Amino acid sequence: MRNLILGAVFLVLLIAVPPLLDLAWQNALVNILIASLFALAFNLLIGQAGLLSFGHAAYFGIGAFAALHLMIAVENGLPFPTPLLPLAGAAAGLTVGLIAGYFATMRSGVYFALVTLAIAELFHSLAPRLEGMFGGEAGIASMRMPWASFTFGSMLSVYYLVLAWVVICGLGLWAYTRTPFGRLTLALRDNEQRVRFLGYNAHASKVIVFAISAMVTGIAGSLLAISNETANYSLFASAVSSQVVLQTFVGGATVFLGPVLGAAAFALFSFLVSDLTRSWVLYQGLIFVLVMLYAPSGIGGVVEHHIRNRKNLDWSRLAGPYLLALAGGLLIAAGVVFLTESASILFGEEYAMARQGANGGLPAYELFGLIWKPLSFVTWTVPAALLAGGGVVLMRARREIGAIWDSKGHGARPAAKSASMGGAA
After folding, report:
1. pTM of this prediction?
2. Pairing, β 140-141 against β 365-367
3. Sign (positive/negative) of CA torsion 88, 93, 94, 96?
4. CA 23 – CA 76 distance, rounded (Å)
5. Close Cβ partners of 122 (under 8 Å, ≥ 6 residues apart)
6. Which end of the chain is more exposed for a tag (fewer CB within 10 A), N or C?
7. Distance from first CA to last CA of the chain, Å, rounded?
8. How far is 7 from 12, CA to CA, in rounded Å?
Protein backbone atom coordinates (compact mmCIF):
# COMPACT_ATOMS: atom_id res chain seq x y z
CA MET A 1 0.00 0.00 0.00
CA ARG A 2 2.84 2.36 0.88
CA ASN A 3 4.60 1.72 -2.44
CA LEU A 4 1.33 2.38 -4.27
CA ILE A 5 0.91 5.72 -2.52
CA LEU A 6 4.51 6.72 -3.25
CA GLY A 7 4.08 5.76 -6.89
CA ALA A 8 0.88 7.80 -7.16
CA VAL A 9 2.55 10.85 -5.59
CA PHE A 10 5.51 10.55 -7.97
CA LEU A 11 3.15 10.26 -10.94
CA VAL A 12 1.26 13.36 -9.84
CA LEU A 13 4.58 15.24 -9.69
CA LEU A 14 5.46 14.06 -13.20
CA ILE A 15 2.13 15.41 -14.41
CA ALA A 16 2.02 18.67 -12.47
CA VAL A 17 5.62 19.93 -12.55
CA PRO A 18 6.55 20.06 -16.30
CA PRO A 19 4.20 22.97 -17.19
CA LEU A 20 6.17 25.07 -14.70
CA LEU A 21 9.49 24.35 -16.45
CA ASP A 22 11.05 25.93 -19.52
CA LEU A 23 11.42 24.27 -22.92
CA ALA A 24 14.94 22.96 -22.25
CA TRP A 25 13.89 21.16 -19.07
CA GLN A 26 10.77 19.74 -20.73
CA ASN A 27 12.95 18.32 -23.51
CA ALA A 28 15.35 16.92 -20.90
CA LEU A 29 12.45 15.21 -19.10
CA VAL A 30 11.32 13.65 -22.38
CA ASN A 31 14.81 12.25 -22.93
CA ILE A 32 14.91 10.95 -19.35
CA LEU A 33 11.59 9.13 -19.80
CA ILE A 34 12.70 7.58 -23.11
CA ALA A 35 16.05 6.51 -21.63
CA SER A 36 14.23 5.02 -18.63
CA LEU A 37 11.94 2.92 -20.83
CA PHE A 38 14.90 1.79 -22.93
CA ALA A 39 16.76 0.74 -19.77
CA LEU A 40 13.71 -1.10 -18.39
CA ALA A 41 13.36 -3.03 -21.64
CA PHE A 42 17.06 -3.87 -21.66
CA ASN A 43 16.91 -4.97 -18.03
CA LEU A 44 14.29 -7.54 -18.94
CA LEU A 45 17.15 -9.37 -20.63
CA ILE A 46 20.07 -8.85 -18.26
CA GLY A 47 18.24 -8.44 -14.96
CA GLN A 48 15.49 -11.03 -15.44
CA ALA A 49 16.88 -13.53 -17.96
CA GLY A 50 20.61 -13.03 -17.38
CA LEU A 51 21.26 -12.31 -21.08
CA LEU A 52 23.74 -9.50 -21.70
CA SER A 53 23.07 -7.79 -25.03
CA PHE A 54 25.66 -5.45 -26.51
CA GLY A 55 23.48 -4.57 -29.50
CA HIS A 56 20.10 -3.40 -28.22
CA ALA A 57 20.50 -0.20 -30.25
CA ALA A 58 19.34 -2.26 -33.25
CA TYR A 59 15.76 -2.47 -31.96
CA PHE A 60 15.84 1.09 -30.67
CA GLY A 61 16.70 2.33 -34.15
CA ILE A 62 14.25 -0.02 -35.88
CA GLY A 63 11.45 1.32 -33.70
CA ALA A 64 12.39 4.91 -34.49
CA PHE A 65 12.43 4.38 -38.27
CA ALA A 66 9.19 2.38 -38.20
CA ALA A 67 7.43 5.22 -36.39
CA LEU A 68 8.82 7.79 -38.84
CA HIS A 69 7.60 5.81 -41.86
CA LEU A 70 4.15 5.67 -40.30
CA MET A 71 4.34 9.42 -39.56
CA ILE A 72 5.11 10.04 -43.24
CA ALA A 73 2.10 7.92 -44.21
CA VAL A 74 -0.11 9.89 -41.82
CA GLU A 75 1.29 13.10 -43.25
CA ASN A 76 0.21 11.86 -46.71
CA GLY A 77 -3.36 11.21 -45.58
CA LEU A 78 -3.42 7.88 -43.72
CA PRO A 79 -6.05 8.18 -40.95
CA PHE A 80 -4.00 6.91 -38.02
CA PRO A 81 -4.08 8.41 -34.50
CA THR A 82 -0.83 10.15 -33.58
CA PRO A 83 -0.86 8.83 -29.97
CA LEU A 84 -0.74 5.26 -31.33
CA LEU A 85 2.34 5.80 -33.52
CA PRO A 86 4.57 3.85 -31.08
CA LEU A 87 2.64 0.72 -32.07
CA ALA A 88 4.67 0.78 -35.29
CA GLY A 89 7.86 0.67 -33.25
CA ALA A 90 6.45 -2.12 -31.12
CA ALA A 91 5.54 -4.22 -34.17
CA ALA A 92 8.89 -3.62 -35.86
CA GLY A 93 10.86 -4.32 -32.69
CA LEU A 94 8.88 -7.49 -32.02
CA THR A 95 9.34 -8.79 -35.57
CA VAL A 96 13.06 -8.10 -35.78
CA GLY A 97 13.50 -9.26 -32.17
CA LEU A 98 11.92 -12.64 -32.94
CA ILE A 99 14.21 -13.19 -35.91
CA ALA A 100 17.40 -11.91 -34.28
CA GLY A 101 16.56 -13.50 -30.95
CA TYR A 102 16.08 -16.92 -32.53
CA PHE A 103 19.69 -16.96 -33.71
CA ALA A 104 21.27 -15.00 -30.84
CA THR A 105 19.79 -17.22 -28.11
CA MET A 106 21.30 -20.32 -29.68
CA ARG A 107 24.38 -19.28 -27.72
CA SER A 108 24.81 -17.98 -24.19
CA GLY A 109 27.30 -15.94 -22.23
CA VAL A 110 29.92 -13.98 -24.14
CA TYR A 111 28.92 -15.61 -27.44
CA PHE A 112 25.36 -14.34 -27.07
CA ALA A 113 26.69 -10.85 -26.35
CA LEU A 114 28.93 -10.93 -29.43
CA VAL A 115 26.08 -12.08 -31.68
CA THR A 116 23.85 -9.23 -30.49
CA LEU A 117 26.71 -6.80 -31.07
CA ALA A 118 27.22 -8.14 -34.60
CA ILE A 119 23.52 -7.73 -35.40
CA ALA A 120 23.54 -4.10 -34.30
CA GLU A 121 26.72 -3.39 -36.27
CA LEU A 122 25.09 -5.00 -39.29
CA PHE A 123 22.24 -2.48 -39.12
CA HIS A 124 24.71 0.34 -38.47
CA SER A 125 26.72 -0.48 -41.58
CA LEU A 126 23.74 -1.18 -43.88
CA ALA A 127 21.51 1.74 -42.85
CA PRO A 128 23.47 4.47 -44.74
CA ARG A 129 23.21 2.40 -47.92
CA LEU A 130 19.51 1.54 -47.69
CA GLU A 131 18.15 4.97 -48.54
CA GLY A 132 14.61 3.81 -49.15
CA MET A 133 14.30 2.39 -45.66
CA PHE A 134 16.67 4.49 -43.57
CA GLY A 135 17.20 7.60 -45.70
CA GLY A 136 20.93 7.13 -46.20
CA GLU A 137 23.36 9.13 -44.09
CA ALA A 138 20.93 12.04 -43.73
CA GLY A 139 18.19 9.83 -42.30
CA ILE A 140 14.49 10.55 -42.66
CA ALA A 141 12.20 13.14 -41.12
CA SER A 142 8.51 13.80 -40.75
CA MET A 143 6.09 15.92 -38.73
CA ARG A 144 3.70 15.12 -35.91
CA MET A 145 0.22 15.54 -37.34
CA PRO A 146 -2.75 16.81 -35.29
CA TRP A 147 -5.24 14.30 -33.96
CA ALA A 148 -8.67 15.11 -32.56
CA SER A 149 -8.20 18.37 -30.64
CA PHE A 150 -4.48 17.78 -29.98
CA THR A 151 -1.91 19.40 -32.26
CA PHE A 152 1.22 17.88 -30.65
CA GLY A 153 3.04 21.02 -31.67
CA SER A 154 4.52 21.82 -28.26
CA MET A 155 7.15 19.95 -26.31
CA LEU A 156 4.76 19.75 -23.35
CA SER A 157 2.20 17.79 -25.37
CA VAL A 158 4.96 15.45 -26.54
CA TYR A 159 6.05 15.03 -22.92
CA TYR A 160 2.60 13.87 -21.84
CA LEU A 161 2.39 11.48 -24.78
CA VAL A 162 5.77 9.99 -23.87
CA LEU A 163 4.84 9.86 -20.17
CA ALA A 164 1.64 7.93 -20.95
CA TRP A 165 3.50 5.32 -23.00
CA VAL A 166 6.30 4.99 -20.45
CA VAL A 167 3.83 4.46 -17.60
CA ILE A 168 1.84 1.90 -19.58
CA CYS A 169 4.94 -0.03 -20.69
CA GLY A 170 6.51 0.21 -17.23
CA LEU A 171 3.39 -1.22 -15.59
CA GLY A 172 3.28 -3.92 -18.27
CA LEU A 173 6.89 -4.94 -17.60
CA TRP A 174 6.25 -4.94 -13.85
CA ALA A 175 3.17 -7.14 -14.36
CA TYR A 176 5.27 -9.44 -16.54
CA THR A 177 7.64 -10.08 -13.64
CA ARG A 178 4.66 -11.26 -11.56
CA THR A 179 3.43 -13.82 -14.12
CA PRO A 180 4.42 -17.52 -14.19
CA PHE A 181 6.44 -16.87 -17.32
CA GLY A 182 8.20 -14.04 -15.49
CA ARG A 183 9.19 -16.56 -12.82
CA LEU A 184 10.39 -18.89 -15.55
CA THR A 185 12.52 -16.05 -16.88
CA LEU A 186 14.24 -15.79 -13.50
CA ALA A 187 14.77 -19.55 -13.53
CA LEU A 188 16.50 -19.23 -16.91
CA ARG A 189 18.88 -16.74 -15.36
CA ASP A 190 19.61 -18.83 -12.28
CA ASN A 191 19.84 -22.32 -13.77
CA GLU A 192 19.00 -22.91 -17.41
CA GLN A 193 19.93 -26.58 -17.26
CA ARG A 194 17.39 -27.22 -14.51
CA VAL A 195 14.73 -25.48 -16.59
CA ARG A 196 15.42 -27.98 -19.36
CA PHE A 197 15.23 -30.89 -16.92
CA LEU A 198 11.79 -29.66 -15.84
CA GLY A 199 10.59 -30.07 -19.41
CA TYR A 200 10.55 -26.47 -20.61
CA ASN A 201 11.92 -25.38 -23.98
CA ALA A 202 14.67 -23.05 -22.81
CA HIS A 203 15.52 -21.78 -26.29
CA ALA A 204 11.92 -20.87 -27.15
CA SER A 205 11.52 -19.17 -23.77
CA LYS A 206 14.62 -17.06 -24.31
CA VAL A 207 13.42 -16.09 -27.80
CA ILE A 208 10.12 -14.87 -26.31
CA VAL A 209 11.91 -12.84 -23.62
CA PHE A 210 14.26 -11.38 -26.22
CA ALA A 211 11.34 -10.45 -28.49
CA ILE A 212 9.39 -8.76 -25.67
CA SER A 213 12.47 -6.77 -24.71
CA ALA A 214 13.01 -5.76 -28.36
CA MET A 215 9.34 -4.78 -28.66
CA VAL A 216 9.46 -2.40 -25.69
CA THR A 217 12.81 -1.09 -26.92
CA GLY A 218 11.16 -0.38 -30.27
CA ILE A 219 8.49 1.64 -28.45
CA ALA A 220 11.25 3.68 -26.77
CA GLY A 221 12.87 4.31 -30.16
CA SER A 222 9.56 5.37 -31.69
CA LEU A 223 9.00 7.84 -28.84
CA LEU A 224 12.39 9.39 -29.61
CA ALA A 225 11.43 9.66 -33.28
CA ILE A 226 8.13 11.33 -32.38
CA SER A 227 9.94 13.77 -30.12
CA ASN A 228 12.72 14.67 -32.57
CA GLU A 229 10.69 14.18 -35.79
CA THR A 230 13.83 12.76 -37.38
CA ALA A 231 16.27 9.85 -37.11
CA ASN A 232 19.42 8.64 -38.85
CA TYR A 233 21.69 5.63 -38.81
CA SER A 234 23.57 6.86 -35.71
CA LEU A 235 20.80 5.29 -33.61
CA PHE A 236 22.32 1.90 -34.46
CA ALA A 237 25.78 2.92 -33.19
CA SER A 238 27.52 0.91 -30.49
CA ALA A 239 27.56 4.02 -28.29
CA VAL A 240 23.76 3.79 -27.97
CA SER A 241 23.99 0.15 -26.89
CA SER A 242 26.82 0.82 -24.44
CA GLN A 243 24.97 3.77 -22.93
CA VAL A 244 21.99 1.65 -21.93
CA VAL A 245 24.35 -0.98 -20.48
CA LEU A 246 26.02 1.67 -18.31
CA GLN A 247 22.69 3.12 -17.21
CA THR A 248 21.27 -0.27 -16.25
CA PHE A 249 24.25 -1.43 -14.24
CA VAL A 250 24.78 1.89 -12.49
CA GLY A 251 21.11 2.01 -11.57
CA GLY A 252 21.03 -1.62 -10.50
CA ALA A 253 19.99 -4.58 -12.65
CA THR A 254 18.79 -6.56 -9.60
CA VAL A 255 16.05 -4.01 -8.77
CA PHE A 256 13.09 -3.41 -11.10
CA LEU A 257 13.31 0.40 -10.97
CA GLY A 258 17.10 0.42 -10.70
CA PRO A 259 17.62 1.03 -14.46
CA VAL A 260 15.26 4.01 -14.20
CA LEU A 261 17.52 5.52 -11.54
CA GLY A 262 20.59 4.96 -13.72
CA ALA A 263 18.93 6.34 -16.86
CA ALA A 264 17.66 9.41 -15.02
CA ALA A 265 21.05 10.02 -13.39
CA PHE A 266 23.01 9.76 -16.65
CA ALA A 267 20.49 11.76 -18.69
CA LEU A 268 20.42 14.54 -16.09
CA PHE A 269 24.20 14.45 -15.84
CA SER A 270 24.63 14.88 -19.59
CA PHE A 271 22.01 17.65 -19.67
CA LEU A 272 23.61 19.63 -16.85
CA VAL A 273 27.31 18.96 -17.48
CA SER A 274 27.71 18.56 -21.25
CA ASP A 275 27.59 22.32 -21.80
CA LEU A 276 30.15 22.94 -19.05
CA THR A 277 32.95 20.61 -20.11
CA ARG A 278 34.03 18.49 -23.04
CA SER A 279 35.16 15.77 -20.61
CA TRP A 280 31.68 14.86 -19.41
CA VAL A 281 31.83 11.44 -21.09
CA LEU A 282 35.00 10.69 -19.14
CA TYR A 283 33.20 11.55 -15.90
CA GLN A 284 30.40 9.16 -16.84
CA GLY A 285 32.97 6.42 -17.35
CA LEU A 286 34.54 7.14 -13.96
CA ILE A 287 31.13 6.94 -12.28
CA PHE A 288 30.50 3.58 -13.91
CA VAL A 289 33.88 2.22 -12.81
CA LEU A 290 33.40 3.40 -9.22
CA VAL A 291 29.92 1.92 -8.98
CA MET A 292 31.07 -1.41 -10.37
CA LEU A 293 34.01 -1.52 -7.94
CA TYR A 294 32.28 -0.45 -4.74
CA ALA A 295 28.54 -1.07 -5.32
CA PRO A 296 28.11 -3.71 -8.04
CA SER A 297 24.38 -3.97 -7.39
CA GLY A 298 24.05 -0.32 -8.39
CA ILE A 299 22.29 2.62 -6.83
CA GLY A 300 19.02 0.72 -6.64
CA GLY A 301 20.65 -2.23 -4.88
CA VAL A 302 22.21 0.00 -2.22
CA VAL A 303 18.92 1.84 -1.66
CA GLU A 304 17.00 -1.43 -1.45
CA HIS A 305 19.49 -2.80 1.09
CA HIS A 306 18.96 0.24 3.31
CA ILE A 307 15.20 0.06 2.98
CA ARG A 308 15.23 -3.61 3.91
CA ASN A 309 17.20 -2.86 7.08
CA ARG A 310 15.63 0.51 7.90
CA LYS A 311 13.95 -0.71 11.10
CA ASN A 312 17.17 -2.14 12.51
CA LEU A 313 19.40 0.83 11.80
CA ASP A 314 20.21 3.66 14.17
CA TRP A 315 19.92 6.53 11.71
CA SER A 316 20.99 9.08 14.30
CA ARG A 317 24.37 7.33 14.50
CA LEU A 318 24.63 6.77 10.76
CA ALA A 319 23.81 10.33 9.72
CA GLY A 320 27.17 11.75 10.80
CA PRO A 321 29.38 9.12 9.11
CA TYR A 322 27.27 9.26 5.94
CA LEU A 323 27.66 13.05 5.78
CA LEU A 324 31.37 12.60 6.42
CA ALA A 325 31.57 10.10 3.56
CA LEU A 326 29.72 12.55 1.32
CA ALA A 327 32.21 15.29 2.21
CA GLY A 328 35.14 12.99 1.46
CA GLY A 329 33.60 12.00 -1.87
CA LEU A 330 33.09 15.65 -2.82
CA LEU A 331 36.71 16.47 -1.99
CA ILE A 332 37.96 13.61 -4.16
CA ALA A 333 35.58 14.62 -6.94
CA ALA A 334 36.87 18.19 -6.78
CA GLY A 335 40.47 16.97 -7.09
CA VAL A 336 39.62 14.72 -10.04
CA VAL A 337 37.73 17.49 -11.81
CA PHE A 338 40.63 19.91 -11.28
CA LEU A 339 43.16 17.48 -12.77
CA THR A 340 40.87 16.45 -15.65
CA GLU A 341 39.99 19.99 -16.66
CA SER A 342 43.60 21.11 -16.33
CA ALA A 343 44.74 18.27 -18.58
CA SER A 344 41.97 19.09 -21.06
CA ILE A 345 43.20 22.68 -21.27
CA LEU A 346 46.95 21.96 -21.31
CA PHE A 347 46.64 19.36 -24.08
CA GLY A 348 44.01 21.24 -26.07
CA GLU A 349 44.40 23.07 -29.37
CA GLU A 350 43.77 26.53 -27.89
CA TYR A 351 46.57 26.11 -25.37
CA ALA A 352 48.89 24.83 -28.11
CA MET A 353 48.27 28.06 -30.00
CA ALA A 354 48.88 30.05 -26.82
CA ARG A 355 52.22 28.25 -26.39
CA GLN A 356 53.23 29.25 -29.90
CA GLY A 357 52.48 32.85 -29.00
CA ALA A 358 54.61 32.46 -25.88
CA ASN A 359 57.57 31.08 -27.89
CA GLY A 360 57.10 27.54 -26.62
CA GLY A 361 56.70 28.49 -22.96
CA LEU A 362 53.92 27.40 -20.65
CA PRO A 363 51.57 30.36 -20.19
CA ALA A 364 49.08 30.51 -17.34
CA TYR A 365 45.55 29.24 -17.93
CA GLU A 366 42.16 30.09 -16.47
CA LEU A 367 40.11 27.52 -14.58
CA PHE A 368 37.15 28.06 -12.23
CA GLY A 369 37.55 31.80 -12.59
CA LEU A 370 41.16 31.76 -11.36
CA ILE A 371 44.53 31.94 -13.09
CA TRP A 372 46.87 28.95 -12.66
CA LYS A 373 50.51 28.62 -13.66
CA PRO A 374 51.46 25.16 -14.97
CA LEU A 375 54.91 25.24 -13.35
CA SER A 376 53.69 26.61 -10.02
CA PHE A 377 53.88 24.43 -6.93
CA VAL A 378 50.49 25.73 -5.76
CA THR A 379 48.74 24.65 -8.95
CA TRP A 380 49.37 20.95 -8.32
CA THR A 381 49.31 21.13 -4.51
CA VAL A 382 45.62 22.07 -4.57
CA PRO A 383 44.36 18.87 -6.31
CA ALA A 384 46.83 16.73 -4.36
CA ALA A 385 45.49 18.14 -1.09
CA LEU A 386 41.91 17.61 -2.20
CA LEU A 387 42.56 13.99 -3.17
CA ALA A 388 44.59 13.18 -0.04
CA GLY A 389 42.17 14.93 2.31
CA GLY A 390 39.16 13.32 0.67
CA GLY A 391 40.78 9.90 0.89
CA VAL A 392 41.51 10.28 4.61
CA VAL A 393 37.99 11.52 5.34
CA LEU A 394 36.44 8.74 3.26
CA MET A 395 38.46 5.99 4.97
CA ARG A 396 37.50 7.29 8.40
CA ALA A 397 33.83 7.45 7.42
CA ARG A 398 34.00 3.93 6.01
CA ARG A 399 35.38 2.55 9.28
CA GLU A 400 32.67 4.26 11.30
CA ILE A 401 29.90 3.10 8.95
CA GLY A 402 31.24 -0.44 8.98
CA ALA A 403 31.38 -0.50 12.77
CA ILE A 404 27.75 0.65 13.05
CA TRP A 405 26.49 -1.91 10.53
CA ASP A 406 28.48 -4.72 12.14
CA SER A 407 27.15 -3.79 15.59
CA LYS A 408 23.61 -4.34 14.28
CA GLY A 409 24.45 -7.91 13.40
CA HIS A 410 23.86 -7.58 9.66
CA GLY A 411 27.22 -9.16 8.98
CA ALA A 412 27.68 -7.18 5.78
CA ARG A 413 28.35 -3.52 5.25
CA PRO A 414 26.48 -1.70 2.46
CA ALA A 415 29.32 -1.94 -0.07
CA ALA A 416 30.03 -5.58 0.75
CA LYS A 417 26.36 -6.42 0.62
CA SER A 418 26.10 -4.73 -2.75
CA ALA A 419 29.03 -6.75 -4.00
CA SER A 420 27.42 -10.02 -2.94
CA MET A 421 24.14 -9.06 -4.58
CA GLY A 422 25.92 -8.08 -7.77
CA GLY A 423 27.78 -11.38 -7.81
CA ALA A 424 24.55 -13.30 -7.37
CA ALA A 425 23.07 -11.49 -10.34
Report:
1. 0.90
2. unpaired
3. positive
4. 29
5. 58
6. N
7. 28
8. 9
